Amino acid sequence: MSIETMREEINKVDAHIIRLIAHRQELAGKIAQFKIHDGLPIRDMQRTTAVLEDVFNQAVESKIDPVAVQKIFEILISMSEERQRGLFGDGNLP
Description:
By secondary structure, this protein is mainly alpha-helical. Helices cover 81% and strands 0% of the residues. The model has no long low-confidence stretch (mean pLDDT 94).
């Protein structure tokens, strides 16, 4: 396999990651509807902690840098919260 072929594979993985992030954002928007209906706050520290612990453990099992994975998920959680704030009328997203 050539380096160009491997880079093409990485490009495909990157595109798939983008689609997964978009899907995660869609789900965050749907969760916001439940939060609005139930009068729940956007930030749920118990859930955030659980997600970050889970991804840390998954990263360890997958033999990838768990701290870096947690940082990525901190960004994803922040994006989800911003999406939800937008649906509450408090966000910066279009």
